[in-house]
Amino acid sequence: MTDQAALQSVLDRAAAGGRITKEEALDLYRHAPLHALGQAADAARRLRYAGTEHIATYIIERNINYTNVCVTACKFCAFYAAPKDTKKGWSRDLDDILRRCAETVELGGTQIMFQGGHHPDYGVEYYEHHFSAIKKAFPQLVIHSLGASEVDHMARISGVSAEEAIRRIHAAGLDSFAGAGAELLPERPRKAIAPLKESGERWLEIMEIAHKLGVESTSTMLMGTGETNAERIEHIAMIRDTQDRTGGFRAFIPYTYQPENNHLKGRTQATVFEYLRMIAIARLFLDNIAHIQGSWLTVGKEAGQLSLHYGADDLGSIMLEENVVSSAGARHRSNRQEIIDLIRKADRVPAQRATTYEHLLVHDDPANDPVDDRVVSHISSTAIEGGTAHPELKLISTN
Ligand code: SF4
């Protein structure tokens, strides 16, 4: 039987900012009472953000899916079309992409997440061309996009190293990488759900190269595709080890597998309790990553709200457009006022943030809340990408 006093002692150490081992994290994840986990994680969050611990943040962004054509065929993905499937496959042209950027700016969005399949023809040149066009037209938009998987793919298509690919797309306008494609980093669960994707070690190696070139990123984890608790903890341990060397991961974002329209059969979705336990463990174990993001898009608004009491300091984005996890069944939608209200009801002061987490607008007086009922989450009618997904929403124009 697990010694509750020993568990509490580990929780106390982590709550005070001390480092815990992988074995201790697994023990906590399996056995610590949920309430005690939440208390410790919240204490760790308050300690890290002493002075601004009353604030929880969100960002306004647009997820732009540029193609759903993909050669990687991840089993959990409801978004992709095989290159030969000309009925289902599509790509957006640059004018369409620029129009979506213009709408994002008009609606107060500060960031775009360029996200799509591993198209067999899209090498480094494609991304250079598109990022430079976006930056030229909208220098105020932050391009927080792609991830190690896309880099691995585009470098192979263009016959260059990952380092050269990163240098070139960064020079063309990419500001930072999203944590897409991490899925599950340990070998067994990764091969089970994404057998054609690069290995977890390679994903981390490319992120390390990026961080050392000054391109920071977030990190993610896909929960609920059949992985064990030990594999979940191994995933975050692999991220922590890399972060010890680079310091380049700004945030960790766990989100839950959505079961519709894909090739994984018989998987049981992660429960809200499992999700909240992971948020809390992430805050306690990832002592070298500043931000833990609650993902309300896949787990629901109430669970997202609760995550703010389990160690999360950020609720991610009000997405002007999201199609990836939505293709797999995520049905939660929201708007800016609702996110502001959710945060307030969780007893925090909402603040709109930048990609780099600076507070752009602190909503400390409800009388001054922004009024814009066009800013709502939305799924594009064109259907969209499936799995390198992130928790996102979309702001759409109603005209
Ligand atoms: S998750 Fe991404 S890489 Fe995998 S099949 Fe879907 S679009 Fe392709």
From TrEMBL:
Note describing how the cofactor binds: Binds 1 [4Fe-4S] cluster. The cluster is coordinated with 3 cysteines and an exchangeable S-adenosyl-L-methionine.
The entry's keywords: 4Fe-4S, Iron, Iron-sulfur, Menaquinone biosynthesis, Metal-binding, Oxidoreductase, S-adenosyl-L-methionine
Keyword Transmembrane helix assigned: no
Enzyme class per UniProt: oxidoreductase
Cofactor: [4Fe-4S] cluster
Pfam families: CofH_C (PF19288), Radical_SAM (PF04055)
Catalytic activity annotation: dehypoxanthine futalosine + S-adenosyl-L-methionine = cyclic dehypoxanthinylfutalosinate + 5'-deoxyadenosine + L-methionine + H(+)
Name of the protein described by the UniProt record: Cyclic dehypoxanthine futalosine synthase
Protein source organism: Streptomyces cirratus
Lineage summary: Bacteria, Bacillati, Actinomycetota, Actinomycetes, Kitasatosporales
